[in-house]
Amino acid sequence: MAEGEKLIPINIEDEMKSAYIDYSMSVIVSRALPDVRDGLKPVHRRVLYGMHELGIRANTAHKKSARIVGEVLGKYHPHGDTSVYDAMVRMAQEWSLRYMLVDGQGNFGSIDGDSPAAMRYTEARMRKIAEDMLADIDKETVDHKLNFDDTLQEPTVLPTRIPGLLVNGASGIAVGMATNMPPHNLTEVVNGTIAYIENNDIEIDELIQHIKAPDFPTGGTIYGYDGVKEAFHTGRGRIVMRAKTNIEEVNGRECIIVDEIPYQVNKADMIKKTADLVNDKKLEGISLIRDESDRNGMRIVYVLKRDAIPNIVLNKLFKYTALQSSFSVNNIALVNGRPQLLNLKELIHYFVEHRHEVVVRRTTYELRKAEERAHILEGLIIASDNIDEVIKIIRASNNADEARNNLIERFKLSEIQAKAIVEMRLRQLTGLEQDKLRAEYDDIMKTIIDLKDILDRKERRMDIIKEELVVVRDKYGDERRSVIEYAGGDLSIEDMIPNESVVITISHAGYIKRTSLTEYKTQHRGGVGQKASTTRNEDFLEHLFVGTNHQYMLFFTQKGKCFWMRVYEIPEGSKTSKGRAIQNLVNIEQDDKVMAFICTQDLKDEEYINSHYVIMATKKGQVKKTSLEQYSRPRTNGINAITIKDDDVLLEAKLTTGESQVMLALKSGKAIRFEEAKTRPMGRGASGVRGIRLQDEETDEVIGMIAVDDMESNVLVVSENGYGKRSSLEDYRITNRGGKGVKTISITEKTGNLVSIKNVTDDDDLMIINKSGVAIRLAVADLRVMGRATQGVKLINLKGKDSIAAVAKVMHEDEEIVLEGEEGETSVEGVEGVENTDVSEDGTTLDNNLEDNNTEI
């Protein structure tokens, strides 16, 4: 031990505790956490103050980043140069800060995670919004402290006019705590702050009306609002962010396009990880990923496989990739030097409190300066009023000090006034300058009165704060970037798919698609119709069904097999698209095809499936009833629904409650009506019982079956040449199954054979499609009820040898359908000639000119 040194024994445990606490507080207060007043951590504050001291403003030239970093390091921030440069770079990145504070020139990195160029290459300057954070700093508005070597002063906080903590957020990891605060929209924050100033007792729910949610610099979608509300109320919460996506068709392929990604997501890493998932078969349905981003904006393209369902792939992208991310809010900031968890109202309160102190200190400073100037002006005015005597005193004095003392003694002036008189220039002795002195004095006295009034009245100070906030909002405010989607929670695939009504069509060659029902418009009978599908020359639409996306589909094939699918799993296409082969969706044999399909609400609800039945009919007149429960356990290869004989095929399948009335119609124009209850339930392997006797075993066949629950409904039949009618259900007497039936339409060469039978009400619309793929939609209410044995009226004009392929009913009340006449009228009378159409007793059409009134779409 050297001479003069002294050893002090200490407890190592106590020393470690004390030292670590000191270190922790230094990290918390001086490095990692932002100040609630200006929203800045010390390094960011020092960078901006250093640029301010260097005179690097928004209207000056860019200066080398190394020069700025050196200034900050040498004067204020005794840490590594990397920490200073990284902090400055982040303030210049548009994907990091909602409102950038630094205007960078050169390579400042990218959203792909590319590193910025070295500080010797890049240049920077302050942005105008940063100047507003430093406004009035030279007016003693904030406290200053000595820098690390006690040679300079630096501000402890900036006198910001910008609510920086809310606007740009903050993140930092301290010791034992961390902060993670999201950015918000400046316009919304200013509006919320003004609302708080006007009513300090405002509730957080009322503030939320102004500040709706965080607003991230990368845009995207905020999915769900519970986390937002929790963060606003408590200071902690979890906000779910999603990329902004849309589905487009590019070069004949469906693609998912991503225009905006969640905040703090590395685009390149996200794409790479997605590609890895695709290659590992963990994410299916994507064939190619392209990054087409350029200087005009972001564009990531996920090219889908031909059999992929876009919404399901998108849901999996949200689930397994960073296209959906979360932001864990933890609003911890320094309040009076101590870390504190803050809710939305408290964040606004402390900012307003800070602005109030800045306004008071600025006003006090300006008042002092004004009073000092007024004091000098009073002395100058005294001198100008006694200019000859003043000149005489000055000339008689040996030096300036003697002149000052003589003036003080003669005119009772202060030292400051006397000094100003002595230093006064000769030009100020002119009459014009003397008038200016008096005008300046009058103005400054008014200013003093006004400044004193501001200090005396808090409402004046609050008005000033509001006015300055409005100026900030008008200068820097912009539109919200992040869209708020008010939904949330853990999502199933169904949550991703809108439960909208759709039209499902199946062509004769087995192509299926679903199309939004809104693509079809209601027309009137006699119209030529709209093109409903583009099919191959040898193909035509054979089945059409209306359901909703969330329903379950049971497909029944002509060989009697049943397959199970959700409606949203059916590929979506426009009404003019061809669709996709069913064989690519379900495992159907090559020589089999779908003949019927039904929708059910829930195949997992035991009460539902045990109280419903499937009744089937074959072309040879067989019927069979089976409990729906037997179809609730699907298999990849399908299940047997009915045993079909070699010369027969399955034609129809209907969902019933077991209490319906069943009608079967024949190609020859006969129909039978019987009680479903008279048909006992059978197992899936049974072949059924006879439902109707064919008129001719060789040429006749069943063309349709209906299951009637509403006894007030009507029976509608359509022939292959476009004739149709509706008749009362009571016109068909109830008989035992297995009979020959009664006449349901008068079959002639003009009408052609019967092709469809439906039960309808006035609330229904009809969709009629011919074999060339042209469709017409009309309201059942436009068809008057006729006798059972009549021929009917013409429903659709057919060209050449065209004929009807399919007829389906659409619920009019479920879709807000507007009936369109020739000039947009909303009634059937809007179509010329329709009101004159009539039918004679034998069912022939009286209006021979109806075909001329059709409009081709």
UniProtKB/TrEMBL annotation:
Gene Ontology BP term (one): DNA topological change
Reactions listed under catalytic activity: ATP-dependent breakage, passage and rejoining of double-stranded DNA
Entry's transmembrane regions: none
Domain (Topo IIA-type catalytic) ranges: 33-496
Gene3D superfamilies registered for this protein in UniProt: 3.30.1360.40, DNA gyrase/topoisomerase IV, subunit A, C-terminal, Topoisomerase II, domain 5, Topoisomerase, domain 3
Keywords of this entry: ATP-binding, Coiled coil, Cytoplasm, DNA-binding, Isomerase, Nucleotide-binding, Topoisomerase
Superkingdom of origin: Bacteria
Catalytic center residues: Y121 (o-(5'-phospho-dna)-tyrosine intermediate)
Gene Ontology cellular-component annotations: chromosome; cytoplasm; DNA topoisomerase type II (double strand cut, ATP-hydrolyzing) complex
Top EC class of this enzyme: isomerase
Region (Disordered): 820-857
Recorded GO MF terms: ATP binding; DNA binding; DNA negative supercoiling activity
Coiled coil residues, start to end: 448-475
Chain span(s) of sequence motif GyrA-box: 523-529
EC number: 5.6.2.2
Subcellular location: Cytoplasm
Pfam hit, one: DNA_topoisoIV
Chain's role: A type II topoisomerase that negatively supercoils closed circular double-stranded (ds) DNA in an ATP-dependent manner to modulate DNA topology and maintain chromosomes in an underwound state. Negative supercoiling favors strand separation, and DNA replication, transcription, recombination and repair, all of which involve strand separation. Also able to catalyze the interconversion of other topological isomers of dsDNA rings, including catenanes and knotted rings. Type II topoisomerases break and join 2 DNA strands simultaneously in an ATP-dependent manner.
Similarity comment: family membership: Belongs to the type II topoisomerase GyrA/ParC subunit family.
Known partners and oligomeric status: Heterotetramer composed of ParC and ParE.
UniProt miscellaneous comment: Few gyrases are as efficient as E.coli at forming negative supercoils. Not all organisms have 2 type II topoisomerases; in organisms with a single type II topoisomerase this enzyme also has to decatenate newly replicated chromosomes.
Protein name as annotated: DNA gyrase subunit A
